[in-house]
Amino acid sequence: MNYQKVYGITGPVSTAGPTAAENKLNDELIQELKKEGSFESEQETANRIKVLKILQELAQEFVYRVSKKKNMSDGMARDAGGKIFTFGSYRLGVHGPGSDIDTLVVVPKHVMREDFFTVLDEILRSRPELEEIAPVPDAFVPIIKIKFSGISIDLICAKLDLAQIPQSLTLSDKNLLRNLDEKDLRALNGTRVTDEILELVPKPIVFRIALRAIKLWANRRAIYANVFGFPGGVAWAMLVARICQLYPNATSAVILNRFFKILSEWKWPQPVVLKPIEDGPLQVRVWNPKIYAQDRSHRMPVITPAYPSMCATHNITESTKRVILQELENGISITNDIFSNKKTWSDLFTKHNFFYKYKFYLTVMASTRGTDEENLKWSGMVESKVRLLVLKLEALPGIKLAHPFIKPFEAAFAYSNETESKEILDNYGSFKTEEQLSKYKRITEENSQDTKDEKKCYITTMYIGLDVNVEEKKEKIDIHVPCNEFFNLCRNFNEEYQNSDIYSLIIKYVKQYDLPSEVYEPGETRPVKKKSKRRKQDKSAEFTKKAKSEAPSGTSQGSSIAEATQA
Questions:
Q1: Rounded to an integer, what distance in angstroms lies between the CA atom of residue 347 and that of residue 456?
Q2: Of these residues, 64, 90, 224, 247, which one is catalytic?
Q3: Which of 9, 60, 88, 239 is the most exposed place for a label (fewest CB within 10 A)?
Q4: Are residue 368 and residue 464 in the same domain, yes or no?
Q5: Average pLDDT, the chain
Q6: How far apart are alpha carbons 360 and 445 in whole angstroms?
């Protein structure tokens, strides 16, 4: 009797192997992924391996230096070890050209988090391969972002309650999590989750090809960004892994079709889990909607397999859930057509239409008149809070959907005085005034060295598409209150951000035809204002602007929307 291991919490839906037609479609899928640039070159792969080898040496040097400072003998300091682990797309084997490497540095108990941001920081800065470095010690998971030999690396650190970290160490034993603080637990979670996912899929090669396709699709359709309320890389990986468990002998092509079908029909908020949720040795929260109200509020829960299990999709809002489900429905239709030879795989990967989709958009502009590092911190913090603005907006009667775009747009201009920086901020972000910016020097990678002594105004813009209910014409939607609340939330996050000479936040609405040119790629046709025959009769077919609200610490612009009709 043929025994087949059962993966996941239920038996498979089908154990059928591939047909000749499915194999052919699978080969076409791999060819399309190659054409789309999903795979990196052998040279790039070799460079990554080389960089990780150097980082391993630097991790050991880091632990050695800290150990010597603690008066350990030379032998003990060397034996203290230190080891790097990768996680995320690189560890899963689905990284593409130019993608970053998520890297964890595991250190023994006498090495402190402050040492990571002082001693290791100093070691990294002394290396000729280092091109960029940005430490973020107060992040949810403290991190040092670097560019090293042309590769972007996110470095995080975790301390175990062990005197030595040998090269043979693995992180699978949950007893290693004893006596750790929350930040160390969070740092270890990435590697532990990634390793478990790979253990829980029947055929890692099938999983990897299917996941590459889903990552490409989710990026193209603009539904890949944990920070903005969409699934991130780990969540998409777990969703693909669950479908692989249900069809253990299927090709990646079949997995994709079943992925769209099963997940669009899924009875959310029933969770997607890859194995039974485990208990463990710690007094920590494990995802459990029966106990925790917060867990019951998760709209599309996807649960990590490694103890302590958490929900990887807690950021999903009502609006982003609707957008995701719509895209899954489209995915069924397209893959069905691919399987009946009416369409090809390239049709699955067509670009989103976000900047053509809505009549009204909200722009959130975080600007910094200061250093690049100040800009990264301020814009990163505002970016991490945009989801909360989406929650406030979608709760308003009259707003059917508040759809955040997944990528911020970055710009920087050189300026001489406050009048110029004000003019830049007033005119940026609108098609009708962007011509006014042509007299200012735009900072690019090419000229950044030549402009290093000039004052710079950095602008990071995030977009939220608004689907407004057009039924009751007289009703006005006042977005002033949520915008002001969001403005104050960001300003008050940190005392430093209350300095309006450096940091400003501008929130304003823009109509589709007035979106700035930067949101459209070369060759794309920008939308034009439609002439309305009903305009004279229907004065309510406009957003009506409320007075600009000037907080003493900066600028926030709220608006009220008169109910939009088909103008």
A1: 42
A2: 224
A3: 9
A4: yes
A5: 91
A6: 32
Over the stretch 112-164, which tens digit does the pLDDT of each residue have? 999 999 999 999 999 999 999 988 888 788 999 999 999 999 999 999 999 99
Query: Does the annotation mark 224 as catalytic?
Result: yes
Task: Give the active site residue among 38, 83, 99, 154.
Answer: 154
Residue 541: inside a domain, yes or no?
no
The CATH number given to whatever domain includes residue 307 is 1.10.1410.10
CATH assignment at residue 395: 3.30.70.590
Burial (CB < 10 A; 0-12, 13-18, 19+), residue 211, is buried
The answer to whether the predicted template modeling score (pTM) of the entire model surpasses 0.85 is yes
Q: Look up residue 333 and give its two tokens.
A: 């239709």
CA distance linking residue 488 with residue 333, whole number of Å: 44
Is 121 annotated as catalytic?
A: no
Q: Which helix (H) or strand (E) holds 107?
A: strand 101-107
DSSP state of 226: G
pLDDT tens across 166-225, in order? 999 999 999 999 999 989 999 999 999 999 999 999 999 999 999 999 999 999 999 999
Mean pLDDT, range 548-555, rounded to an integer: 35
How far is residue 413's CA from residue 457's CA, in Å, rounded to a whole number? 5
Range of the domain at 109: 42-191
Active-site option among 38, 89, 367, 559: 89
53 counts as catalytic:
no
**Residue 361 catalytic?**
no
Catalytic residue among 102, 115, 184, 195: 102
Q: Please answer whether residues 272 and 266 qualify as being in contact, where contact means their C-beta atoms are separated by less than 8 angstroms.
A: yes
Task: Note if 154 is an active site residue.
Answer: yes
Local confidence band at 4 (pLDDT 50, 70, 90 cut-offs): low
Measured from the Cβ of residue 517, the count of other Cβ atoms closer than 10 Å reads 10
Burial class (CB in 10 A: 0-12, 13-18, 19+), 443: buried
Note whether 495 and 433 are same-domain residues: yes
* Bind-site residues: 87-89, 100-102, 154, 215, 224, 233-234
Q: Are residues 282 and 307 part of one domain? A: yes
> 432-467, pLDDT tens digit by residue?
999 999 999 999 878 877 777 789 999 999 999 999
Q: Please enumerate, by residue number, every residue annotated as part of a binding site for Mg(2+).
A: 100, 102, 154
Closest CA to 129 of 55, 184, 185, 193: 55
